[in-house]
Every structure is written in C-alpha cells, then in structure tokens.
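Justification of computing resources. Each target in the renewal requires a structure prediction run like the one illustrated here; the chain below, 388 residues long, is used simply to show the kind of job we budget for.
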Amino acid sequence: MKKLLTLLFIGCLLSMKGFSQPQEISLVSPEFHENGSVTFQIYAPNAPEMKLSGSWMDDWNDRVDLVKDGEGVWSVTVENLKPEYYTYSYFLSGVKVLDPHNALVIRDGRNYFSGFLLSGDESRYYEVNEANSGTVQQIWYTSPSLNLDRRMVVYTPPGYETSGADYPVLYLLHGGGGDEKAWTELGLANRILDNLISSGEAKPMIVVMTNGNPNQTSSYFNTPGYSEDADPGFLNTMGNEEFEKSLVEDVIPFVENHYRVKPEREFRAVTGLSMGGWQTQRLAYHYPEVFNYYGVMSMGVIRTGAFGYEAEELIQNTRDKMEQLNELGFGLYWIACGTDDFLYDSVLHMVELLEENDFDYVYRESSGGHTWDRWRLYLTEFAPMLFQ
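Resulting structure tokens:
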C-alpha cells in the first residue's frame, strides 16, 4: 500500500508540475532498434534529473543518466542487450517511477517494475505461443495442516480440456520474498512450458505453483493476527518445514482430486529456486516416497548451519536422508547454480556431501547470479528431463 501511495503521489506531482505529455509529442518506450539497442524515454520537462535502473545491470543500485532534449523528453539508449526478459524503472530525484509509456508492469513480491521482452534465439522459449497455449488458473484450496484457505496457480498444458488424458505433475516452488504468482509473472513458466511442449522437447504436464510461505494465504496476505512489526522473517517460516508438510498432505491430494493426473510417484516432480531449492531438498529427504524427480536451483547446504539447524546437525541430517533416498531410488536429482550466485559456495558444499555419500546427481553450473534470467534458463533445461 505504501508503494502504491508513493506511485500515486509521484503521478500527481508529475501532472501538477506540467510533466504530463502534450498531445503533439508521441513517445514509444522502450523502443527497439535493428542493431539490438533499446531506447528508453519519458516526458518530464520540469524534472531536475532522471535515471534508469534495469535488471541487465550488475547491481540493483546501478543507474544511468537520461539526457533531456529541448522538448522536455528525457532519453537514453542501452547497447548490447542480449535477447532476454527484462525489468526496469526510472528514478526521479531518487524516487522510483514506472514507465508511463509501457503497459507491462511486473510485480516481484512487494516491488513493481516496467518490463519488456527482447526477442531473439536466446529468449525464444519466453515468447507467447499463440498457436499452442495452455491455461493458467488461480485456485483456492483448503489447507488443514496450516488451518488456512490458500491460493495456488495451476498450469494445464495445451489440449488438457479436450484430451481426456491423465498427466504427470511438476510442483514448481518460488524463492524467498516471492509468492504463488512469481513463476508466471517473473519466471514465465507457462510460456516456457507452452513452447517446450509444442516443440516436443518436453512431455505435456500440469504445473502447480504454490505459495511457499506457510504464514500466507496468497500474495502477501498473511494469517489472521499477523503483524509486520512482529514479523519473525521469512527465514523462520522457510525453516520450520510447515510448507513441505502442507504440500504433501494438502496440495497434492487437492490436485489429484481436481485434475486428471497420474497419481503414482514416478509421475511427480518438484523443483524450486533459492528458498524453493531448500524446500525441494527437505521434500526429497523427508518425503522420499512422494517425488521421483528433483531440481534444486541456487541453493545448497550452508556450512555454518541455517534455518534452525546447527552446522553439524544439518550436515549429518542431510547425509542420513541422502542414504534413505538412495535406497529407495529416484529418477533424477538435478542441481543448478550460477558461479556469481551468493549461494554458490553452499551449492559446492552440497555437491561435496553428495560425492562423499555416493549419491547419484546431475550438476549444472552456469555463469550468472541469483537472478531470474538463470532460473528461467534452468526451467527450460529441467522440464525436458522429466517423465521420459
């Protein structure tokens, strides 16, 4: 609400100071050029300065200056962007402003950004597949284990409504600070699956995207009596493993009762990023009989301990659970992380533990950090490995 009020205030400020765009000035922003560069522009004749911040920059605090022309239009052209899905925003005297010329607004938790897709071979899986699109639904369900009515997002593949077939299911988990909409708004999971399924690279599957914060009903609506002033932090709710219990006891039964799914273990997969990667590990070790495919993105085993575990306790617990999962057997345990990710060392530590325990895994190392461009890439690589 504070962020919304700030945006409304800035909008009023722009209007009062004559920043509204005259009819004779027609702006396109962002504007794409044949050489791959992108121009950003905004009409603000009375603004003392204007800066641009974008997800392609090395740091979220990095900003570049826009230059004002004689008509009051601020602009800057960015070169050498690779085809990708990007977010950006302007800063007017230090205050964040969305691009008024761009209708695409993307929410990342409590933050809002303008966005655009720069088309090309590297971003081909992120394009809208008009010929073969699945269906995305927001579904409310009852979670007895959490004593809440909660919301999930469910993707059904192209042809689900008319095929009469039963489908395997991928449970796709977001990271800390995200919610059940993160994988569609930022991860473009539905577009990725549409294109992979249409090309035959991945099997048709249902994808279930839940809210991984057990103290929330949906998108930052918290449990009754919850207070931000008394918030213990999402790390505590991440580590209490209530979400994992609710996924197994509440979400999976709901999905299997309301959708045409193949209910056997061999047709269930789970993957997640960061916090969701931690939860995927916990699901693998505490509920090994439930899933057959696991994908851990950008999360490992932290040497100093984490989420209520002491370091030695965490390591021994991980070793014990690895042995149980190994004995039961599974289809795939896949790990992916960028070398610039702040959790990279924890992933290397997890790989060491897996090696020490003769655990069968696949490790995918890439460039990049703890960012959505990596997680979208990982999903395009992980989904085709499933249910083959």
